């Protein structure tokens, strides 16, 4: 196991992350700010719902695409 392997943010999950959930809490973050959670295939929906019901979720992108977008 390498430290470079991104791991799912769900509690107790050690699976490799596939998705990036970008979110923003308007009460504490400026509108452009993006916090990120990582999610495996299994937890993407669960974590998306958690953020979605609070109105925090902005974007769900594949980790590969997120990283390539950052490098660009
Ligand atoms: Zn997971």
Automatic annotation (TrEMBL):
Superkingdom of origin organism: Bacteria
Name under which the protein is recorded: Acetone carboxylase
Natural source organism: Streptomyces variegatus
């Amino acid at each position: 196991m390498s430290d470079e392997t991104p791991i799912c943010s769900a509690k107790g999950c050690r699976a490799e992350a596939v998705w990036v959930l970008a979110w923003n809490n308007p009460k504490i973050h400026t509108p452009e700010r993006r916090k990120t959670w990582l999610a495996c295939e299994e937890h993407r929906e669960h974590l998306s719902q958690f953020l979605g019901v609070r109105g925090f979720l902005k974007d769900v992108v594949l980790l590969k695409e997120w990283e390539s977008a950052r490098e660009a």
